[in-house]
Amino acid sequence: MVKKESDSSEKNANSVYALRDLLGAIAENPQRFSGDQDLLKALKSQGALAKLQYRFEYAGVMANKEAMSTNTLKTYAEKLLPGGFQVLDELRLNAITALASTLEQGKPSNKRTKYGLLQRTEEHEEQIAQMERINFALLQGLMSAMQALRNLETAQNLSSAQVEAKEVIRVLNSIVGMNPPPFGELRTPSPEASASST
């Protein structure tokens, strides 16, 4: 009887350690576990995770997480883990977040979910940073265009004026090209269109 209790205690302890390692492995490499539907369902609640029976490889060693009651999981987690069951549940939430991030990568962000809001915030921050870079480049480009226009005003002959005019157009085209599509192209009217409008 004592041996059975000892075996059960050891199995429960090993399962708690295995679960801790499993949750850590998911957070470190969520892509590895993203296709496991049973695991994804189990992570949704403490009770489902306690009942999960799972075998996996961790650090080159096969580990077993045996099914147990939520109370048993909590009891052994409090005994064995620094921070107790609360830390284990935080690991569960971290694993969920990591998996959600992996599964939603490449998808349009959904502002109704917590991760969707975070993703949209990151997208907006990147857009703002990009616009700041573009604005800085635009200012430099406009300064170059203004200088070219000044040179055009002081051109000594028609040939010099044509060279300066081409430089102004080149700079302005470069500035416009910094904008995202469809605003990255400067459309100039053709000579025929200009003639017909006069």
Explain this structure to me?
The structure is a single chain. By secondary structure, the chain is mainly α. The chain has two domains: 2-104, no CATH class; 114-188. Helices cover 71% and strands 5% of the residues. It has helices at residues 2-28, 30-33, 37-42, 46-51, 70-80, 84-104, 114-153, 158-176, 191-197, and strands at 54-58, 61-65. A two-stranded antiparallel ribbon has the order 1-2. Helix 1 runs parallel beside helix 6 and helix 7 runs antiparallel to helix 8 (158-176). The model is unreliable at 181-186 and 188-198 (pLDDT under 50).
Write the layout of secondary structure elements.
Layout: H1 2-28, H2 30-33, H3 37-42, H4 46-51, E1 54-58, E2 61-65, H5 70-80, H6 84-104, H7 114-153, H8 158-176, H9 191-197
Antiparallel strand pairs: 1-2
Helix pairs in contact: 1-5, 1-6, 5-6, 7-8
Q: What is the number of beta strands?
A: 2
Q: What is the mean predicted local confidence, pLDDT? A: 77
Return the domain count. 2
Fraction of residues in helix: over 70%
Radius of gyration (CA) equals 32 Å
Distance between the termini: 106 Å
Structural class: mainly alpha
- β-sheet strand percentage: 5-15%
Task: Describe the largest sheet.
Answer: 2 strands, antiparallel
Low-pLDDT stretches: 181-186, 188-198
Summarize the helix and strand pattern as letters: HHHHEEHHHHH
Shape: rod-shaped
Number of helices: 9
Largest beta sheet: strand ordering: 1-2
